[in-house]
Amino acid sequence: MPAEPEPPRLAVSDNDIRLLMEKQFPQWKALDIERIEPGGWDNHSFRLGSDRLVRLPSAERYAFQVAREQQWLPHLAPHLPLAIPEPLAEGRASAIYPWPWSVHRWIAGAVPPRDTICHRTDIAHMLAHFLIALQGAPVADAPMDNPFGRGQSPRLYDAAAREAINRLVDWLDAERAIAVWERALLSDWQEDPIWVHGDISLGNLLWDGDQLVAVIDFGNMAIGDPSCDLVAAWTIFEAAARETFRDAFALDAACWSRARGWALWKALITLAAIADKRSAKALGQLRIIDAVIADTPG
User: Before 138, cis peptide (omega within 30)?
Assistant: First the structure.
């Protein structure tokens, strides 16, 4: 499956939110509205009053996530050691906004700075045990389908990864990157499918008072292969914290090879799309690529 170009994002204004409240949830129409920046790519986010969050998919390809979160977040919450989003209402498509949308309870906290937590073994331990609890949650009738391949094999993105490596030969060790990628494609998950979050990234963690308090943005959740959720080993953590995170899981080497593939693919396609390869954003992706390659067994 080649990487699809990102669709244009639908613009949403504060006034749109006000109109949606007036038409569909008039009990909340007088509450203050504040746009959240950055609000993520898949959704526009607005704070509504002091204790609500409005989330609206930014393109039609993300609209499926609304129903998935509405149905499954309440199912998962009792099984997890950290807070996750709590749906309060589901908005309807209308002339104001064309797809379903949601209102969640506000979770206090901020995205943790990577330089602060990358060596924190306690944070690594906490995130690992959150994922272990998620993997152990009941899966009856849970969704296995996911348009972005989370819970499936990184093999879905073989063409995109190889194309990105070819475009980046002047910026990375292409031979070693290919070796890491090809090793990731050698195995498949052989166990029963288990829950995956689908986008464990720094931007989807919240901390408050120097501690991890929540994991957010479950729109890509599904059941399947957990390897896609292990990318935090390289995208967030370093050194001892990486080892703490990895040692918490009873997963085999093949699963970690697929996890390296997921981390490598995302960093490759992100880096390939950045014009200035010396920018801070590009250097961050190069750091991930180098970490994945260096951490691959010989």
Answer: no
Q: If you average pLDDT over every residue of the chain, what do you get? A: 95
CA gap 149, 234 in Å, rounded: 20
Strand partners, 212: 207
Of 153, 232, 230, 225, nearest in space to 194 by CA: 225
Q: How far apart are CA 8 and CA 17, in angstroms?
A: 20
Average pLDDT over residues 202-226: 96
Q: Which of 231, 248, 227, 201 is nearest to 291 (CA)?
A: 231
Q: Distances from the Cα of 34 to the Cαs of 14, 44, 107, 290, in angstroms?
A: 7, 11, 15, 39
- Residue carrying structure tokens 């330089």: 115
Please provide residue 264's backbone torsions phi and psi, each rounded to the nearest 5 degrees.
-65, -50
Q: From the centroid of its chain, how far is CA 273?
A: 19
CB atoms within 10 A of CB 175: 10
